[in-house]
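Let's practice the habit of predicting before peeking. Look at the sequence and jot down your guess about where helices and strands might fall. Then scroll down.
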Amino acid sequence: MFPEAPIRIAVMLSPASGDGCVEFSRFLAVYYALLDAGAEMLLASVSGGYPWPTRPKRPGGEGSELAARFRSDRHARDDLANTLTFGQVFIEDFHGGFCVGLPGSIWSSNDDGLAGSLIGRFLQAGKPVAVLPSLFDIQPKGAGGGLLIIGDGDWPPWRAVHALLASVPRLSEKERTLP
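Done guessing? Here is the structure:
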């Protein structure tokens, strides 16, 4: 019997506000929930590199534990500083995607540089995608051929992560043992 390969998730970062504070807190929750679940991640943003125009403010309250973890996590800081562009993501390499922030319209553009377009490609390939928050345009095709997991601002990001990971198709033992 072969061990299961880790789930590979493309995390798309599309901050909606100028300071990136709310989305940064949400990113930390998603990043560490995926990491703690054993998923492999690749981070992507509009222009690559660090995805926010300014350094996020240090979040207070419940996000402060994750912020402290991030500050002491060199690998996470390197991941964030070295994001790829959306156009550099090959959906064939991933089991699914997760968009943190507002992706824009999914179906109205074929521009590979937009999060919405990348989400559309994942859905057309039948791969699940989670998006937090859920304020975006899914007309006219809805979720296409994939599964779209959406939540509002009150939904904890870890719930979207768990829903996404549970929806990733697993290879059967027979498929894993084929030559």
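How did you do? Residues 47 and 90 are 16 Å apart (CA to CA).
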